[in-house]
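Worked example

This section walks through a single chain of length 556. The input is the sequence exactly as stored; nothing has been trimmed or padded.
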Amino acid sequence: MSRPVIAIGLDAADPNLLEKWMAQGHLKTMRQLKESGAYGRLKTFDFYRAETPWTTFLTGCSPNTTGYWSPIKYHGHNYSVEEIESYKFKEYRPFYALADNRRVAVVDVPQAPVIEGVNGVQIAAWGAHSPQTPSCSSPQHLFQEMVERHGDHPLLRRDEANILDLPELKRLQEGMEIGIARRAEICRDLLEREPWDLLLTVFGEAHVVGHYCWHMMHPSDHPLYKQMGAQYPGDMMLEVFEAMDRAIAGILEKAPADAQVVLFSAHGMGANVMDIPSMIFLPEFLFRFNFPGKMGLAPGKVGDPLKPAITGRHPREEGWASALWNTKYESNPLKSFLRQNLPSKYFDRIEPLFGTAQGPEPMSPFKLFHQGQPQCFQPAVWYKHLWPQMKAFAIPTFSEGYIRINLQGREPNGIVSPAEYNSLCDEIIEKLYRLRDARTGQAMVKGILKTRQSATDQDPKLPDADIVVTWQEECVTDTVDSPDVGRIGPVPYTRSGSHRADGFLVVRGPGIDAGTKLPDGHSLDLAPTVLSLMDASIPQHFEGKPLLQSPAMVSS
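Given that input, the structure is written out below as tokens.
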């Protein structure tokens, strides 16, 4: 006879951090679950690690199988970018929709839309980080009922803050803690209504606090720690995780006595080593590669004295994109000075007096915004009007660096012939491996993947990028040197945390010995593990395995 499963996800919670805190005596509920049950580490894919973990978890399939790589879709037929939101779950359904006749309650799982054919209740996009689906429920009335009984999430679709603004960060923290408590009350409410075979929920606040408050914990390896975190009397990261720990305890109070408890994270977090290289350095590198002698953003010369990092709040208080746009190269020194020092409402009025720019240059994010361009805050899109003229260009990303080749016969204005495809890829890769952190000398590139065997490979399930770049994880970088295109930087810091490929799994329940060590697993193993605990059949198309049935499992 199967026992009920309470599965609780901590979105992008890093196991290294949690293990440290638990060893220090924090997170008492999580520590008790870990010590009284089975624990193991997980890995997810090194490439597309930010955009794919939830689809991988829900379907039990890799991105190569689902064809889902990102909520941002590049369309080669017209060089456009579209926000497509979550995977549609038509070919591969969420694992809980395949659990035979088991009754399930699915609450606020990221990128999990409400779908037909689920035996139970579903609440989507109540407060998940980057939900990528509309806010709704099944049955339809349940969403509003829960909002009326327990409140809405104060940060839904606005869970961000200026990392240099302490009052904004405190507002973010307060909103996260309110949302954490309310989600727990929704779960408690549902547990009182029916003996579910599976209750699944996810705390997206672990993701949010990692992105925006990594520099606000003690200690932090982010360059802004001395300026921000060290001056703050508390530890924002730990405080938010303690709120989640209390919420988990509250949920488990309503769980059946024989419940099997699953606590997991499909991927992790660390100091932000991805956003600036992927979103700024790579698009600018490719701009300079395609237009020799031209500079778009953050111009500099290799060997010159390094400028200080940009650590102050932008004087216009218009956000990170505005601060970055102020680094735009101007050949006219007066124009450059005015761009950096005048409020935008004044500079925008006088800019036409300087005449039209000569040659290619990036386009203002404010102009793109007024044009209704999706993802206009992404620097890669600032070069979009030039993509037809470029051999290769960066496409928008929340993760690794993505490069698209402007291929003849595929793109409407393709420049690169199929015969040149591999040699161009190799040339770009060679130059990328020469990138160095200008402050430390650290090589910037950790690994590079070519996603196609040849230019003629047009499998629709392949990612949009022809080349994927993973970056070093040793230090946060604001300035890079290239012997090929010169110095880029300094640029303003964006979010202080970015993703890692590390996750974890805790399982506690009857028949599981305390201190059991699970074998090293993968995010693909989560769905079959939960189905196995539910005593439900595991579909043949699943690419992972139930970790609790592995013969490699040993007891410590």
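What to look for: Confidence is low (pLDDT under 50) at residues 550-556.
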